[in-house]
Hints:
This protein is an alpha/beta fold.
Amino acid sequence: MTKVKELKMKRALVTGATSGIGWATAWALAEAGWDVMAWGRREERLTGPEGLVAQARGAGLRGSIEARSVDVRDGAAVAAAAQEFLEQGSVDFLFNNAGLALGREPLHEGNLEQWEAMIDTNLKGLLYVSKAIGQDMVKHQKGHIINVASIAGKEVYPNGNVYCATKTAVDALTRAMRLDLGKHGVKVAQIAPGMVETEFSLVRFSGDEEKAKEVYKNLKPLSAKDIANTVLWMVEAPEHVNLADVLILPTSQLNAVSLR
């Protein structure tokens, strides 16, 4: 009898996996047969009795999900967690999803603490993780990185100032990373969503549910699963195909500020 060769599972790292797009993408990857390491700040959401790992283990997924509490704003913690993960094998896919928006005030009324949190998470955190994992990808001359950008990185909108600035930086950084890493066999891309109904607006408005609901009034927004399915399509494209910049909007959203 011919012995069937066992296929090696692909390994992915997903940041910001405690909810929304990160959670949905970790699940979609595992469902498709990937072994996923999920990072996030809220440990209970990841490893608690009702957390992502527990739910995945009971769902009969083709792949697996493991998790670790990591705050991407902490460069030393990122380096340590990345080293531990890489000791178990190389990473095929990095999904830089961790990010947030805080506040909707005009610049002259802005909250400095909120500004720093957005810059530290959306930009510096992405840099810390990309360097730690990118070094390994360059070493193995393979890999795929997808950064979560935003339509806010392509068009600014009123009172979006610092958030828009960080996502504009992600757009530029993605293109720069593609130049630096592409010659080493690493694909670099970004997905830029418009309105997605997750905890995004709830976080932005400091838990104010009424303000958060108002954001999605009069339209059907995208879901986290919509983004996850698109990311899966991007990462499982043929080797010679790089879907380098995917802008994804709800049909009712025409640009950063206009609805039909």
